[in-house]
């Protein structure tokens, strides 16, 4: 069985929703839901939290994540990317003699994702012998009904060719990234230096009710409603 590193990325700064990674959600800090799902997953060999923030680190450790180091300030600013933090973590662990075949990137902003989603994505990757598996969900609306607008807001060319009289139910299903699970082959990731998807990358389908991605206050309120209506998903440990 290949080695899988569960990597939770949670920086302290957030412009649109300050301190969002530790805001309360259904009785726990937002981060806690992802840590608990990762800890309950059967196929993760280690669950590491990568953060620049000591309070976030303390909360992550409280719920079972390991925080072997804090990420440096240059990886905590608005211009730093998730890729920067992933590569830094793999490099730092590698310097300590710790190497993994795959990294499973988990964002705290997907609190409704459960352990079975993580394990399901890993099992799909193994079945397909893939380099990457990324979680997706169905879109709320067909992308054919979306378009850009000019400065004068004219709708003259809003409809795409051949779409005007097409019913939405007659359009093919479309999918979007839901931010819940990203799995990458570590060697290929380090060699390429990007999180692109190639011909050996596959989608892992997740239901809408577990695909809320929190970026704004409205997203947080929606997640609260989902928890209230559906209840927290069941994380079954092995």
Kindly state the mean pLDDT as a whole number? 93
State the CATH superfamily name.
Spore Coat Polysaccharide Biosynthesis Protein SpsA, Chain A
* SS content category: alpha/beta
Helix content: 25-40%
What would CATH call the class?
A: Alpha Beta
Assembly state of the chains shown: single chain
Task: Outline the structure in words.
Helix content is 29%, strand content 18%. The protein is an alpha/beta fold. The chain has one domain: Spore Coat Polysaccharide Biosynthesis Protein SpsA, Chain A. Strands 4-1-5-7-6-8 form a six-stranded mixed beta sheet, with helices on both faces. A two-stranded antiparallel ribbon has the order 2-3.
Summarize the structure in short.
The protein has about 240 residues and is α/β, with parallel strands linked by helices.
